[in-house]
Amino acid sequence: MEFDEALDHLDALINHEVMPRAGQTEGLSFAPTAALMAALGNPETAYPVIHVTGTNGKGSTIRMVEMLLTGMGLRVGTYTSPHLESVTERIRVGAESIPDDDFGMAVGDIARVAEAHELNLTWFETVTGAALLHFANEAVDVAIVEVGLLGRYDATNVVDARIAVVTNVGLDHTSGEGDWRAAVAGEKAGIITPESVLVLGETNPAVVSIFVAEGPARTVQRDEDFEVVEDRLAVGGRLVSLRTPRAGAEDILVRLHGAHQAENASLALTVAEEFFDAPLPEDVITEAFDTVEVPGRLEIVHRSPLVVLDTAHNVPGAEALAETVATDFGEGRRRFLVLGMLDGRDPVAVCHALQVADYHLVVACTAPTARGLPADTVRDAAIKVGASVDAIHDIEAAIDHALGQADDHDLIVVAGSNTIVGRIRAIADEF
Question: According to DSSP H, which parts of 92-213 are helical?
């Protein structure tokens, strides 16, 4: 297929990212993807896999692991979701997005096999299959694969994880009813196999026991086996010292904003050490953390005024964003917030976590997707938390409104969903 044909094919498939089943596990199965992989000759077995799940921090942790393994000379394939601007961002080899032509060919291969074997694949199953096939065709040394939803029944769980990584367990993709934390942990634990080394970032004892009970070959746990020893604000990021089971690192600059990035760095370094079963050279660690980039996560896209993009969309992510805005971007600035959210979130809880009342003005907008909450709904939620709010439906008009209100020394934060951040990121050069 040509690239445009591949996009048209995907648009015709069921896409649960647009019409989600958040909080539901009934009917979920990776059987269609497993049948697809078998028909393709199981390309996912051609390379070792680091499988990553969790509520928050997956994207940053994966980017750090990618840089660490690349620095060690490996050819690394990475599969993540969702994307910001182009679907090709989801599939990377050597830290570069898959070329459009290669993406079209991979999706075409999946479509032909699915038709021949009468497999009714979804959008995500098709793209997952394309990624795993592409990695085999590119002869990667290792693939880092991010779970799409929870874990146990996710399409990505056709892989057998050499390293199973859990960042944390929080309230997202769940109804929040009953003992939701245990239920979510039970589903995320499904990526663990008897041969997996589990690197566990979650520290809640009740939740930890659920992951350990899944029976990994070995468990490496935050606070017991690895931790952040020191974390200080530095120019351009954080200066951190980390303890890991094999060595760790001292006074390393992580060129990302937010205290939570130190936690992600400790997890990432531990994962890399577990993969090699050895400590990493100091120069590799220094280079990886100094050059890591995570699009859409506290990403500065303009100065004068300072415009920062962050995909925070749930309560834990919003809390981390609020803390970082308060600590990393200095006092004395007026703050403006361009905010759009998706259906399925609790807009009042997210607005409270974002501390919207601390902003000079919130500009509520509508995310450009079928799941986008109306700007008026976002506005009403922010007002309940004490914010001054203008509601402007169109995203580009919303950022223009904020830019028109702000002075050169002010701060504009764009947050609430990947679709909002992706659209603003695409036009940032026009500011």
Answer: 100-116, 123-137, 180-188, 205-213
The 10s digit of each residue's pLDDT in 143-155 is 999 999 879 999 9
Residue 258's contacts (CB-CB under 8 Å, 6 or more residues apart) are 238, 297, 298, 320, 321, 323, 324, 328
Nearest by Cα to 262 from 288, 241, 293, 236? 241
Kind plus residue range of the DSSP H or E element containing 142: strand 142-146
Q: What angle do CA 14, 19, 20 make, to 5 degrees?
A: 110
DSSP three-state, residue 146: strand
CA distance linking residue 218 with residue 195, whole number of Å: 8
User: For 231-237, what is the mean pLDDT?
Assistant: 94
Which of 254-263, 323-332, 371-380 shows the lowest mean pLDDT across its residues? 323-332
Q: Which residue has the tokens 């032509």?
A: 101
CB 219 within 8 A of CB 200: yes
14: left (phi over 0), alpha (psi -120 to 50) or beta: beta
Task: Using the structure block, give the residue that is written with the tokens 């089943």.
Answer: 21
Task: Name which of 359, 352, 391 is nearest 373 in CA terms.
Answer: 391
In this predicted structure, the answer to whether residue 26 has a pLDDT above a threshold of 90 is no
d(CA 174, CA 150): 9
| 80 Cβ contact list (under 8 Å, min separation 6) | 58, 59, 62, 89, 90, 92, 146
Q: Where are the domains of the chain?
A: 3-221, 299-430
Q: Counting beta carbons within 10 angstroms of the beta carbon of residue 16, is it exposed (0 to 12), middle (13 to 18) or buried (19 or more)?
A: middle
Angle between helices 58-71 and 282-291 (to 10 degrees): 140
Rounded to whole angstroms, the Cα distance separating 159 from 37 reads 10
Which pLDDT tens digit goes with each residue over 294-344? 999 999 999 999 999 999 999 999 999 999 999 998 677 899 999 999 998
Neighbours of 175 (CB within 10 A): 12
Tokens (6 digits) for 209: 């026991």
Domain 3-221 CATH superfamily: Mur-like, catalytic domain (3.40.1190.10)
CATH topology of domain 299-430: Protein-Tyrosine Phosphatase; Chain A (3.90.190)
pLDDT value of residue 84: 97
